[in-house]
Write a structure and sequence with these properties.
Layout: E1 2-4, H1 9-19, E2 30-31, E3 34-39, E4 42-48, E5 57-62, E6 65-72, E7 91-99, E8 109-113, E9 116-122, E10 131-134, E11 141-144
Parallel strand pairs: 2-7
Antiparallel strand pairs: 1-7, 3-4, 4-9, 5-6, 6-7, 8-9, 10-11
Length: 145
């Protein structure tokens, strides 16, 4: 039901690990890790975004393309603080996912808790299995939902 849109994303991730990561920009955002699974009558997509303010997260759906962008900004510090170590990535993160036609993109819900953005995409009614009853005598079929 879900498709990856960037076949080179994994290669980019490995390259960043080997040569050091640079902060993502709006024109070249960094990848964000995600999980996707089916739970009952919905698909669930969870994105790891620790330390990101919910106001800095942007979710768009155009046709069947879901785009999530987020920006982790540096924490403002006073002038008397000297940074000793900074490993947490800053900058812009983005992920695009192609959603199948059988998903209801009009009713996507989003929740952000403990640094995880969770989207629930319900399966469209037209895509759910239906029982087909058979009429007797007149040779017609009726669809019951």
């Amino acid at each position: 039901m879900l498709m990856r849109t960037d076949p080179f994303r994994e290669f980019d991730r490995i390259t960043q690990q080997l040569f050091g990561s640079t902060p993502g920009t709006w024109s070249r955002p960094s990848a964000m890790p995600m999980d996707a699974y089916r739970e009952g009558d919905a698909y669930v997509i969870a994105f790891d975004l620790p330390g990101v303010d919910p106001d800095a997260i942007d979710i768009d759906v155009e046709r069947n393309m879901l785009t999530v962008k987020a920006e982790r900004r540096p924490v403002t510090k006073s002038d008397d603080i000297q940074m000793e170590l900074s490993e947490r990535p800053l900058g812009v993160f983005s992920r695009q996912v192609v959603l199948a036609d059988s998903l209801d993109t009009e009713h996507i819900s989003a929740d952000y808790d403990a640094g995880v953005l969770t989207l629930r995409v319900p399966i469209a009614e037209r895509a759910k299995p239906r029982k087909i009853s058979i009429g007797v005598g007149e040779g017609r079929k009726e669809i019951s939902g």
